[in-house]
Amino acid sequence: MLRLLLATMTILAQPTPEEAAKLRARVAAAPKLKLRKTELNVKPPRAGWELGFVSSAAVDRKGRIYLLQRGLTAQPVVVVDKNGKVLREWGKGLFKIPHSIRVAPDGSIWTVDSASSMIYKFTPEGKKLLEISVGEQPKRNSDFVGTADITFGPDGRLFIADGYGNKRVLEYTADGKRVKQWGEFNLPHGIAMDTDNTLFIADRENGFVQHFTLDGTFISKFEGLGKTFSVTIANGALWIGAQPRNEPNGAPGWLMKINRKTGDIEGAVASTGHHSLAVLPNGELITGVRPNQILWFRN
User: Fold this and answer.
1) Which residues of the chain have pLDDT under 70?
2) pTM for the full model?
3) What string of DSSP letters covers 136-185?
């Protein structure tokens, strides 16, 4: 049996105004990212077409922007160029609560559903290549009863944050066979693979970002960063989207650049309602915010 050193208790430490004040002071003292907030205006391809809440965004090597959205007139996956022109869309009938979209190292597109716990792999053109039915959803007083995010390890290994209710991390093979599960979290909402093949996991409700080996052995924990929704590795840094824990989801917060070794805030920019975070090679940031905006923080 694997010996796993688990660092997080599932008991939720209650957020306080004092905690939020410390976080605001910490962000205020950190360097400011030299980014200008703009909006990516997506041009409707037909009459009556509009985006809903963009739960997640990702960018591929060609600069195409993949949006996973919850509106009813557009299809769940919408691909746009940097000018907001819709290139294609797909996924009608596949999703209950679209939650996360990621571009894998091989260029394939992966989506995560937080109600059905279905994971889909697509080509960039929208052809479905693989589906994984995670299952085992718990009974909760919420429609959110499943997976939250996915990241990609060596040899095509898949690591899934099964956050809503099960509070665990799952490992699958590249062809969709489950290997194991591990972890003791409150709500693992975001997961990202570091360049040294270790994992960063955003435990949203506990306000932790934790660092693990691929077998689940605890390395370190960054506290005091607030309710962390998203986590991404890019340009040599850990990037997160967070807000104070004592405020409702969608409250004003920040997109932050975090030192992967120390947990220090190396840069921050104010943002509101962010749920995901895509980092471009030039350091620009794209995030979807409620109700139906796409913010682009540009150099």
Assistant:
1) 1-12
2) 0.94
3) -PPP-SSS--S--EEEE-GGG-EEEEE-SSS-EEEEE-TTS-EEEEE---
